[in-house]
Write a structure and sequence with these properties.
alpha/beta, 9 helices, Arc Repressor Mutant, subunit A
């Protein structure tokens, strides 16, 4: 499941046509005959998400596109979902967008419009993936800190100077400087301000 675009539709000719379209535009696509098969493959990779986009037919049997979407949300899937819908299902698609789907496109649609929407979603997916990787690295770095380093970190985030930190923790200023240097190295920052910004952005 390394594909960047996943096409989930129970119409074989339609999904293969879309796969050919994206292949002709330089994108790798994988097709799925229904929500069940797609969800089984997705569950096998949780929580290792890479950037991807899902094109999801809203009307499928036995598992509908909407039901598949709800399962993906329950799995914590970060991928943008773009619903493909017939005229009678537009209201359902609008509701899905309000519930977190990326967008929807009504059949029949222009190929260029679809490709443009998917490329926009891929760009967003890449950004989401980058943020998730950064957040994971941050959590790993935090978990690598010793108990004393975490104490010094907390003091740094309060804006305290080395001298004050030494007094609060009952250690020498030189020891504080040593821990501070280790913290900055592990957290990949060069200042307390940068550290605070990084934690504010990625820590959950």
């Amino acid at each position: 499941m390394n594909s960047a675009i996943h096409i989930v539709d129970d119409d074989a000719d339609f999904r293969e046509g879309l796969a050919w379209l994206f292949d002709s535009r330089g994108h790798k696509a994988q097709t799925w005959a229904g929500g069940d098969a797609f969800l089984e493959a997705v569950r096998a990779r949780v929580p290792y998400w890479g950037p991807a986009v899902v094109l999801l037919d809203i009307r499928m049997e036995p598992l509908s596109g909407l039901a598949t979407f709800e399962e993906l949300k329950a799995l914590g899937c970060p991928w943008p979902i773009l619903f493909l819908t017939g005229h009678g299902d537009v209201s359902m698609a609008v509701a899905a967008v309000k519930n977190g789907a990326w967008d929807f496109l009504e059949k029949p649609f222009q190929n260029n419009v679809l490709v443009d929407k998917v490329e926009q979603a891929l760009a967003a997916a890449s950004s989401i993936s980058d943020d998730r990787r950064q957040a994971h690295r941050l959590r790993s770095a935090l978990s690598s800190l010793s108990t004393r380093e975490r104490e010094v970190l907390d003091e740094l985030l309060k804006g305290h100077y080395n001298k004050n930190i030494a007094e609060h923790l009952g250690i020498t200023q030189r020891t504080v400087e040593f821990h501070r240097a280790n913290i900055f190295k592990k957290m990949e920052v060069t200042s307390a301000i940068e550290l605070a910004h990084k934690l504010g952005r990625y820590e959950s």
